[in-house]
Amino acid sequence: MKNIKLHVCVMLMIVIAELIGVKSFSVGPGKIVLLPMLYALIIGIFTTPRFLNIMKQKEMEDASSLIGLTLMLLMARYGTLVGPTLPKIISASPALILQEFGNLGTVLVGVPLAVFFGLKRETIGAAHSIAREPNIALVGERYGLDTPEGRGVMGVYISGTVFGTIFFGLMASFCAALGIFHPYALAMASGVGSASMMSSAVGALAVMYPQMADQLAAFGAASNMLSGLDGLYMSIWLALPLTEYLYKKCCIVKYGHVLTKEEEQ
Q: Which residues are within 8 A (CB) of 52 and not within 5 positions of it... i.e. 6 or more apart?
């Protein structure tokens, strides 16, 4: 908290990102919405020792300790969006809860692909979820972050933050353009536990349905909060055990046997 250099650099990143503002452009029937959060992340990457070396190791460690505090403020903001539309959200609560089972699709699709492309124990961390903050904490507690599983979950976390926002914004726009799904359903589907991905998808939907902007933000925020709450238990009791089981089966298919610890190095 007393690292003045860190706070000054973060403030400058925020100012630059906000000055750039929200940028959107059309791709076919869809629309990609680029949010200031993405610019801030990219600027932050270039300040690290590997690039411009503005942020030293101390600043990086201090910044990581503040993630929990910033997430608390973000969730408080979501609460202010959910409150005014609570009756509508309650009426849709079964759909909001049941959608969490859809996240198991990450395991069923991700594990075979990861093993096919040559990942080993990294598959467990990378494919058991979309790898947001609660999942990082789970993998860190279960395996440790300085392990193949930890590298897998962190790799997907960073990739999701950079590319997931673009993908979600584009996918939401394309799905809305099809006219098959109600905008509320698309907003609920965007809440997979990632604030950046949800914001990108809801932002794209709000551009297409400006008269529903507040309701879309509320449904997206409520869905995102529920995914963060029950999604962690889903990962502990279903997704992670299923990932371990499917990983072994896929290894048998590819290598002919379950890999030993030496082979997984």
A: 46
- Could you read off the pLDDT of 122-157 as tens digits, one per residue? 999 999 888 887 788 788 888 887 788 988 988 888
Q: Do residues 201 and 31 lie in contact, with contact meaning Cβ atoms separated by under 8 Å?
A: no
Please count the other Cβ atoms lying within 10 Å of the Cβ belonging to residue 18: 12
Other C-beta atoms within 10 Å of 39: how many? 19
Cα 52 → chain centroid: 27
Between CA 261 and CA 197 the distance in angstroms is 35
pLDDT tens digit sequence for 18-49: 999 877 766 665 566 677 877 887 888 888 88
Q: Would residue 119 be called left, alpha or beta, if left means φ above 0 and alpha means ψ between -120 and 50 degrees?
A: beta
Nearest-10 crossing angle of helices 4-20, 36-46: 140
Phi, psi of 199 (to 5 degrees): -65, -40
